[in-house]
Every structure is written in C-alpha cells, then in structure tokens.
Amino acid sequence: MEKTLYLVRHGQTLFNVQEKIQGWCDSPLTQQGIDQAKTAKKYFQARSVEFDQCFTSTSERAIDTLEYITDRPYIRLKGLKEWNFGCLEGESAVVTPPLPFRDFFVAYGGESEETFQKRTAKTCEELLQNKGKTFLAVTHGAFCARFRAYWNESSIPELRLVNSKQTIGNCCIFKYRYSQSTFRLVEIVSHKQQKTFLS
C-alpha cells in the first residue's frame, strides 16, 4: 500500500532571528513563525488533507508548529530532532562553515553527518510502519535537508538536488510517496520567507 508523508520544518524561532545555532537546544516561535504554521495549516485545509498519524520532534518549536497546523493527537519522537551541534549549540551562526557542513560538528561533540542522515531515514521509515496512509511529521531544517539528500535518486527528476547549499525555509512542506520501502519526493511547498539559519 502506498503511503504519503508530509515532512514539515517548524516555524521561525527567536534563535532564527538572532542568527544562533539551534539544534538540540530550543527557542520559542516568533509571531512570524506562528503565522507560518497557520499558513501551512491553510495549505492542508485547502486540499482536504486528513492525517491518519501525526508525529513531531520533541523540541518545543516543532511541537508548537504541529499544534498550529492540526488539532489531531500526535506522538513525539526524539528521532525527529535536529542535528546535534554539540557545544556550539546556542552560539552565533557566524562560527559555522559554508554548507555543506559534513562532519564539522563532530569535533565539538555533535553528530557526524552520516550518523545524522541515517537517523533521518530510519526514523521516517519506522514511523510509516504505523497504521494509516497519510502522515504528518514536523521536524527541522537540516533534518529535512539530509532526508531529502538520502532519497535524492528516487525523487521525481525536477526535484532532485542539484545544489547541496540550497536552504529550507520555515514551514516548508515536503511531500513524499512511500512504497516498497522507498521514499519519493513529489512536491515541495515553500512559503515566502525571510533569511533563516540553523534550526
């Protein structure tokens, strides 16, 4: 049975505005972030999308985003958390290198890119083993990026990654079709954004 996964980045946060590194640490949604989540809700309502199962990262910014999108019950998963940036959490984003980060954060006690990317793939595949056909998962920017890269070759040609430095806006929606243990990216919905940083 084919299933559908909507993978959504959380709304804008205080640390996004302050240009601080935000992985496993957290900060609240701004008013703009709340509005972005409400815009995402309108996208799903306009298409009469009904979620059979909802999941979110355990980070407050993701939980709050999900609660603005839907009033459906949800499950919090640590596997949906952002890349662990180690002791650089909460620091200014100016200390990070240009994308792609690769294993830059390992030296600071964070996750390697390979470990993180495998976590994204494992978590999403496991959550789709639950009953239902349509799933919502609210997560983070780097999570969405590394998951997309993992399944790049199976995505429709016009959505395949050609530039690893592409950024992901707050409340960007990635629509995946899942069958025969394979995720296929079929749509990306980007809302009008201001520049945002790691989260």
What does this molecule look like?
The chain has 199 residues and is α/β, with parallel strands linked by helices. It has a domain of 135 residues: Phosphoglycerate mutase-like (Rossmann fold), CATH 3.40.50.1240. 28% of the residues lie in helices and 18% in strands. The chain has five helices and six strands, in the order βααβαβαβαββ. It has a six-stranded mixed beta sheet, sandwiched between helices. Helix 3 links the parallel strand 2 and strand 3. Helix 2 crosses helix 3 and helix 4 packs across helix 5. The chain is globular. The C terminus is likely disordered. This is Histidine phosphatase family protein. Pfam families: His_Phos_1 (PF00300).
